[in-house]
Amino acid sequence: MAERSWKLYLLLLLGLGLRSQEALPPPCESQIYCYGELLHQVQMAKLYPDDKQFVDMPLSTTPDQVLQNFNELEAAHNHSIPRQQLQEFVQQHFQAAGQELQAWTPEDWKDSPRILQKILDVKLRAWAGQLNQIWKMLGRKMKPEVLSHPERFSLIYSQHPFIVPGGRFVEFYYWDSYWVMEGLLLSEMAGTVKGMLQNFLDLVKTYGHIPNGGRVYYLQRSQPPLLTLMMDQYVAHTNNITFLRENIETLALELDFWTRNRTVSVNLGGKSYVLNHYNVSYGRPRPESYSKDMELAETLPEGDREALWAELKAGAESGWDFSSRWLFGGPNPDLLSSIRTSKLVPVDLNAFLCQAEGLMSSFYSRLGNDFQAAKYRDLQAQRLAAMNAVLWDEQKGAWFDYDLEKGKRNPDFYPSNLAPLWAGCFSDSGVVDKALKYLEDNKILTYQHGIPTSILKTGQQWDFPNGWAPLQDLVIRGLAKSPSPQTQEVAFQLAQNWIQTNFDVYSQKSAMYEKYDISNGQPGGGGEYEVQEGFGWTNGVALILLDRYGDRLTSGSQLALQAPHGLVAALLLYLLFNFLLQ
């Protein structure tokens, strides 16, 4: 079956006129979970409110038997199976989603990690204790049958237990896991972090990259590359140099994937600069959002549909699925059908890779390999020069995604425009204070409940009015790198606003959410599914901020009124300081 799938795939590539690339991730070969008539009929019948539910359901028998029985059923109904019979077929041949995972309490979980003692506000300290409890709720490990019968599951086997985001996301996700791991390390759970890291390293050894998430239908795409940073945080916490030495070549292999498969050349002023973009060379609808992708494609001419599906997958690879960042062109630029993710050179992706190259140079130096250390030092220097030439805008004081088709930067506000600060990928410390002016110019500091993901309201979940935990972190810890007390004070006030929003919602609903509506301080919305509870990276960022500012952060409605004034005061100090220097 695998050989036949490969032939079909190669024919598809030829039909689409796509160029083969070295070391592309393998196409998902499952004719049940990834493509094929069975997937098409079930998802288009909308048997479940969320398309993800079906592709997460394990098989009750072998894939060959399921496909044979389906083909017979289809033939009996002249290729148009009534909904009732389709529902009965699924009930007979599939098990309920989630059967392959079991709840797991991490062995290294502690009731009172030291971080709690750093938090002076009594209510916030108690809340941080509740966040620490949530790790037990989000712990999962795989049942042995996922290893013994992998063909019956969409889940990719991982040897070690892990922490999931929560809600509909019951498997690991790549970039989510970075902030989860930081939170776990603050909760003194280094053993759990090592296991999660090992799972990711094993995936790189098997597939050459880390997929978007832990399912076979995610194999065609990755997510923002933070594996090297995960290793850095773990080693900084444990000083486990042996683990680093054993896995340094696997870290290099993951970065090679981005070099081989996600590189783009930008010509400016007679010079050529090499940077990276999100780009998935496979069409077909996303299995976990199949019916939505099919319906969206029906609004376009047939010849444009495969390209649309590839761009949707690239948007999912970015982690920003979906956002006005990727929506351009046509009479209705806010429509998801106008997506063209691969045509942008994103600031945050290149900042993450720049940071990873610097870390790899440091790792190799520490391990005594001066040749490899110099190689990655040179790669980082080249990327810094390219980012300065292509993405940096001196006048505006920020970096901007570069539009390959229009040959210019996208001027819109996104917190990712400041990602190089967080990643430490800038050569002039003065840019941090320029970033503060950039935030002020865009009136970002006027929002009480958090930093908006954009100032454009498109209905997509990575746009206004949603605020996301990792983007708060990018800006707050980026600003905190400034030597200026005024800029550091704004970073604190932004942290206070976000913690207040998380704390207030938790006080009302006893839950943490994946995103928040910064216009009203409630759980967020928009996008392809309902807002999810959990929530891994939100918990992680809250603990990061509580760890950093625990001696200053406070709770209560009184502070909620004071927080904006604190930002205004910090801004006035900043403006006065600059005026006196002139």
Record keyword descriptors for this entry.
disordered N terminus; 582 residues; three-stranded antiparallel beta sheet; mainly alpha; 21 helices
Summary of the model, kept short:
The chain is mostly helical. 50% of the residues lie in helices and 7% in strands.
Q: Can you offer a commentary on this structure?
A:
The chain has 582 residues and is mainly alpha-helical. Among the domains are: 22-93, no CATH class; 428-582, no CATH class. 50% of the residues lie in helices and 7% in strands. It has 21 helices and 13 strands. The chain has helices at 2-16, 37-45, 51-55, 63-76, 83-93, 122-138, 144-148, 174-186, 190-207, 227-238, 241-261, 290-297, 305-317, 347-366, 370-390, 419-423, 431-441, 469-479, 485-509, 536-549, 557-581; strands spanning 101-103, 139-142, 162-163, 263-268, 271-276, 344-345, 392-393, 398-399, 402-403, 408-409, 466-468, 515-517, 522-523. A hairpin with a 4-residue loop joins strand 9 (402-403) and strand 10. The radius of gyration is 24 Å and the shape is globular. Residues 1-25 and 557-565 have low confidence and may be disordered.
Radius of gyration, taken over Cα atoms and rounded to an integer in Å = 24 Å
Number of strands: 13
Query: Outline, from the CA principal axes?
Result: globular
- In order across it, which strands form the biggest sheet? 1-2-3
Approximately what portion of the residues adopt beta-strand conformation? 5-15%
Mean pLDDT: 92
Instruction: Bin the helical content.
Output: 40-55%
